């Protein structure tokens, strides 16, 4: 019984590891019907005072319930380990055709409140507004070039 349990755990771990190697970027452009942020929020942009280095730390490691990279991928292309299982696929931040239409305020709103009909959960209870702006700055300066 013990050997079977250990073997099962090893097989599952191997499948996850192999699956993550084949995680592919989300398509570009990405059609979405995401609800627009309220006008006052959509027009906000507090990224000038935000800290991209802290945003990277949150994106890569510390965001709860899980790090952003788990779905969006370490390259921000939507190719994260867990992203492959989501419908629709996570946002591909490297897709200029899609992201040119997304304001900093819209990104802030989605990170804070989540996005209904997608796998994007709300982080407003676990991240402070300043931390969310840090993540927005990191995404916009790193992946949206």
For the termini, the CA-CA separation is 53 Å
* Name of the CATH architecture: Orthogonal Bundle
Weakly predicted, low-confidence segments = 4-11, 13-21
The total tally of domains equals 1
Estimate the global geometry from the Cα principal axes.
globular
SSE string, helix = H, strand = E? Answer: HHHHHHH
Q: How many strand segments?
A: 0
Spatial extent as radius of gyration: 17 Å
**CATH superfamily descriptor:** Cytochrome c-like domain
Characterise the protein shown here:
46% of the residues lie in helices and 0% in strands. It has 145 residues and is mainly alpha-helical. It has a single domain (25-142), classed as Cytochrome Bc1 Complex, Chain D, domain 2. Helix 6 crosses helix 7. The relative contact order is 0.20.
